[in-house]
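Reopening closed ticket. The problem is back. First fold of the pair:
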Amino acid sequence: MRWFFYNVANPFIAIFLAVFIGVGFGLSLFTSVSIELWSLTFAACFLICTAFFAIKKPNFSLEIDLEVSHFRRMDRWLGYAPYLIFVPALVVVFSDTHFQMVFDGDIHTSYINEILVGTTPPENPFLPGYPPNYYWLYHALIATFANVTNLAPPLISSLLNVMALICIFAWTKQIIRALGYGDKHPLLVNLMVIFVVFGLNIFGIIHAADDILSGGVGTNISRDMILMGDSRLRSLWFKFLAFNSFPLTLVYYLMGIFASIQFIFEAVF
């Protein structure tokens, strides 16, 4: 089960969504794309990606023991205990889908509804006839899922955010193991995962480089590597509770880091 998640389910989700959004955006560059065509593209990309994984059987894990078999089964189960801290927040989110509406719900639902009844690229919902003023591919993804599943867009957003959170934890754990810390006690490894995701600004190296290039050394660079160093990440957990594409973006960011580590290990070692 664990092998299936790390080698199939987790990478499949990221690759499938990237292919789907890429194809849909490409079509939108040349013609108006209705929600029916988005749904057809969704089905086609899903079948193509499924066939690719079935035929190629790509391996996304390093040559490490994902089961950490020298620990007892009870220790491995105990290792997941830190994730229970997120259960209360998830209960709140799924108990009322209107919760998402308090985070710029007007602009997000406007784009989603426009895509559901119209075509892409959408117009600016506040200034009809003008180009969109927001990244609308995320809304196209939500609208397509809503059309395919007949679920409410806020619920779909919550489900995608939870799925992204699980994938983020998985890619972070893969990175930690790839760097040689996978033999630690499962409880310690999972605590490290949570700390890396929520205790640090994992984009800090990018902000630090930007500060250096802009001559800001000595002003903000000392805070770049902590969460509060970036004002947009001060409430990182809320990024997983609201309408936004940040959780999915973080999945691809971490997937890229893991792929880079794999490339370096294979090329150098």
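Second fold of the pair, where the issue appears:
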Amino acid sequence: MHTNKLLDLPEATMRTSFIIIITLLVTSCVPVTERSIPAGYEGPRAVIKSTSKAYSGSEATLFYLKEVDGRLINNALLRAEVLSNATNSHLIADPEKTQVRTGPIKLKLVATRVIATPPGFSLKTQELGFKELVVNIESDKIYMVKGEEQSGTARLWLENSITSETFE
């Protein structure tokens, strides 16, 4: 059995303690999110998908839905954080698909530049801009959060993936 000479503890105990401490640190930093659809809602739905622009295997700009009706929801940035955490400085920015209720809905779209870091560290992020808008979401449609960077900021819009109708 190996021991840690500094603390005179078995190596397995040190490793277990380290894992518990890291888990507590990581989970304490995760923002509290809510469902994108209110509890009990059983009406028609639509989907809003995030998009991204990759610059390399470790850097991209994410264009995503961050809030629905003023509630912070699970989103593409949080998904990238979770998926990329176990990789060696490789960014995984898969599109996030969010179901939303139909009818008039307040959305917060965000553009964030993201750079992957070594495992165990948070992604480096820089918010480039956001846009709040109220859109009449139609049943069974798929919408995309789109954007483009302009001199360190971003222009954002929502686009119907079938008709290409845009909402700014």
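Update: turned out to be a display glitch only; the data is intact. The radius of gyration is 20 Å. Helices lie at 11-28, 76-84. Please close again.
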